[in-house]
Amino acid sequence: MKPNQPRLRLTASALLLCLAIASHAETISIQEVAPGVYVHQGVHQLPDEHNRGEIANIGFIVGERCVAVIDSGGSPEQGLALKHQIGAVTHTPICYVINTHVHPDHIYGNLAFKAAGVSFIGHHKLGQAMALRAPFYREKARSELGFTLSAEHFVPPDQPVKDTLDLDLGGRTLRLTAHPTAHTDNDLSILDTQTGTLWLGDLLFMGHIPVVDGSLNGWLQEIGKLRSVQADRVIPGHGPVVAAWPLALTGEENYLKQLQTEIRSAIQSGKTIEQAMEEIGQSTRPDWRLFDDFHKRNIATAFAELEWEDD
């Protein structure tokens, strides 16, 4: 029997791994916010070893023919958990994984869904953004989140979207829009035309302070355009699902406009970026979670953009 012992130990280890994955998967919470539209709401926290980067809103939409995943999660395990939850809700196969942008809390679960018949979809600049950021993201995952990523975890879109794209899930159509540089340079939004559900990713923050990783001016321009979209509810990248559309944009828009106004004034007054980071926007502190973690960074990013406006 001794020759069989290693095989038995391997089988036991594999079983324990499967049980651990199943246990993690069974604990992920989802809410059906509209018929066939399911969301797991993230928490307003910085990514760390405790939450393992699982902080964003993720979920899926079920059609008659297939399922579309929208953002796969902040860790490989969360991707597996989401996949498990989809299987608990429906036997309809997964055919699309849609990434709303490149940030880690939205893409690290991608590999769990890589299989024959599954197409990955994103902004036409997403693949390049993944390739450029992957080395840094892999190091940050190891040092700050407590897990290791390989190159395989960064699954780029095989269907890049340059303008708009309609996806037929069977009995419902998703209208995807690739946006000019705003929150990032690779933002994608999704409108479920059947239920009027608008999934904005990080083009919309609620509760969590908005994070500028693209263009302040561009983001404000996109907010203006988004207001004309007809929708019955909106799913932000961070924060609760709400029916008050387009009123849901107001808090974010006011914050970004105040940054724009005060930074322009600081530049015209000859103030330095360091002075701007200490003085600008402090009155908005009570309005946002994680203010101290991102506000000064937003000022630095926007200041670098706005100081070249008139050149």
Instruction: Say which CATH homologous superfamily is assigned.
Output: Ribonuclease Z/Hydroxyacylglutathione hydrolase-like
Tally of distinct domains: 1
Strands side by side in the biggest sheet: 1-2-3-4-5-6-7
CATH topology: Metallo-beta-lactamase, Chain A
Number of strands: 12
Number of helices: 8
Structural class of the helices, strands and pairings? alpha/beta
| pLDDT < 50 runs, ≥5 residues | 1-26
Residues in β-strands, percent? 15-25%
Radius of gyration: 21 Å
Shape: globular
State the name of the first-level CATH class. Alpha Beta
Helix content: 25-40%
Order of helices and strands: HEEEEHEHEHEEEEEHEHHH
Mean pLDDT: 92
Can you give keywords for this protein?
311 residues; alpha/beta; Metallo-beta-lactamase, Chain A; 5-stranded mixed β-sheet; 12 strands; 20% strand
What's the gist of this structure?
The protein has 311 residues and is an alpha/beta fold. It contains eight helices and twelve strands. It is 37% helix and 20% strand.
Write the layout of secondary structure elements.
Layout: H1 5-27, E1 31-34, E2 37-40, E3 58-62, E4 67-70, H2 76-89, E5 94-98, H3 104-107, E6 119-123, H4 126-145, E7 159-161, E8 164-168, E9 173-178, E10 188-192, E11 197-205, H5 216-226, E12 233-238, H6 250-268, H7 273-279, H8 291-306
Parallel strand pairs: 4-5, 5-6, 6-7, 11-12
Antiparallel strand pairs: 1-2, 2-3, 3-4, 8-9, 9-10, 10-11
Helix pairs in contact: 1-2, 5-6, 6-8, 7-8
